[in-house]
Amino acid sequence: MRDGSQSANVSFTLSDKIRIAIALDDMHVDYIEGGWPGSNVKDNIFFKEMKQHSLQHSKLAAFSSTRRKSVTPDKDKSLDEILASGVGTAVIFGKSWKLHVSDVLKVSDEENLNMIYDTVSYLVSHGLEVIYDAEHFYQGFLSDKEYALRSLKSAEDAGSATIVLADTNGGTIPSAVSAITREVSGAVKSKLGVHMHNDSGCAVANTIAGVEAGAVHIQGTINGLGERTGNADIVQLLPTLSLKMGYSSKSSINLHKLKDISLLVDELSMQGSNPRQPYVGANAFAHKAGVHADAMLKNSLSYEHIVPELVGNKRVILLSEVSGASNLIWHAEKLGISLTKDNEKLKDALSLIKKLEEQGYEFDSAPASAMLILLSKLGLYNEYVALQGWEVVSNEKISSATVKTEMHTGTGRGDGPVNAIDNAIRSAFGHMCPAIMNVRLIDYKVVLPGKIRDTESIVRVLTEFTDGSELWRTVGISQNIIQASVQSLLDGFNYYMWLQNRKAKPEVQDTNRVQ
Fold first, then answer.
1. pLDDT tens, N- to C-terminus, the chain (515 residues)
2. Could you tell me the domains of the chain?
3. Distance CA 235, CA 218 (A)
């Protein structure tokens, strides 16, 4: 958590840090490096507040550097803050690379070794477990192997329980990490760990190489947050080490929590989720091509390296112009509808979906709209909500909308035209379909795909809805942004009403008779 907080454009509040710590404990990580209490007030308060929370599986650790030059440990305020934090574990970093000793610390080689020894022994004498992070170790080893190893020896002789080799510049490649770590593992008696940065895109691979070479302690961050391009992503490392390499942790990591904690950190860091993140991303088990979907229905091992539920994720079959019949069959089965590939109505629906994609629709992001097409072709659905016309008037303060049906006129006001038209639709149909009042619009996106062939430029609107339990997404396109929004909204309400009707009258979907 300490290194992750050092990401550019990331600033966790005190409550954020506490929520993340509790979630990490729930996932059963062995150590939570909560912060550097001597560097800022927030981290100092964090450790005081964490005394009110009893961690069940994790050890809370505080971070600091070795003592300042020309100062004894008992006179170093940063070390005093670690003692005052009440933690049982301290993570201390020191210099292994002579370049940093001479150019950054500006001390002699021997003074640097004394700073490492004095700091570790001081904290150990106060009953703390000390994890020593050898900063820039791989660079130091390549520059002066003997001195780099002496720096580790200083920490080990002072009582450090774990020695961590850090690729702080993130420029080492896996083969070098493997060779150096293996050599070091034969030279130290303490437990060996690795701490990798991702500047060359190798942080996860380097960590795995380090483990294979003898490291038993790994450091990383959720979602790979960290300085510059980040640290090794724990979310990728844990399932790889556990499911693919057979390693286990002392506290039995709860892999089922991986996606949840990844999303939590995304939310609190306000970075936005990476849909392509291995294991937990929204696309990690998403299959789009018809060939893939067909194979998945026959045997999920054909295109998935693990069962997605093991890491809290789920399988998704997308719908688009590259889809085949199997893609639609999968979605139909989710709705309790059994279909075969030779179903002519299924073929008609697939043909129409492909045609609409060519016109600018995007169904992989809006499967509910695609399913309305299929349900209509199968004779299982007719529009519940249909409009004959609409009108919106807006100014800088308020928007007003009117919608008309054969029987009713609905009006609505809102902060903008979409909010107003949404309220007007509910006004027109709420009395006959009360359930639509339970529906909330939780996301609304406008995409400008440009011209489709020789037509005028269009607007694509993607809308996400929920009723508190179900979640669905729809799409509308038009040269008019309000018209596209109306289409997407109507699809959203119609899909919800179909779901409600299915629950109320399940017999209307005799799936064995749908041919």
1. 898 889 989 999 999 999 999 999 999 999 999 999 988 899 999 999 999 999 999 999 999 999 999 899 999 999 999 999 999 999 999 999 999 999 999 999 999 999 999 999 999 999 999 999 999 999 999 999 999 999 999 999 999 999 999 999 999 999 999 999 999 999 999 999 999 999 999 999 999 999 999 999 999 999 999 999 999 999 999 999 999 999 988 778 999 999 999 999 999 999 889 999 999 999 999 888 888 878 877 887 888 999 999 999 998 888 877 878 888 898 999 899 999 989 999 999 999 999 998 888 899 889 999 999 999 999 998 888 788 899 999 888 899 999 998 888 899 999 899 999 999 999 988 777 788 888 999 999 998 876 665 567 889 999 999 998 889 999 999 999 999 999 999 999 999 989 988 877 655 444 434 33
2. 61-246 (3.20.20.70), 286-377 (no CATH), 389-508 (3.30.160.270)
3. 12
Overall pTM > 0.90? no
- Tell me the C-alpha distance between 313 and 255, whole Å: 10
Residues in contact with 76: Cβ distance below 8 Å, sequence separation at least 6, in sequence order: 67, 68, 119
d(CA 17, CA 197): 22
DSSP 69: T
Residue 254 CA to chain centroid, in angstroms? Answer: 16
Distance CA 151, CA 440 (A): 59
For 233, which DSSP code? B
Q: Are 372 and 495 in contact (CB under 8 A)?
A: yes
Which of 318, 436, 329 is closest to 367 using CA atoms? 318
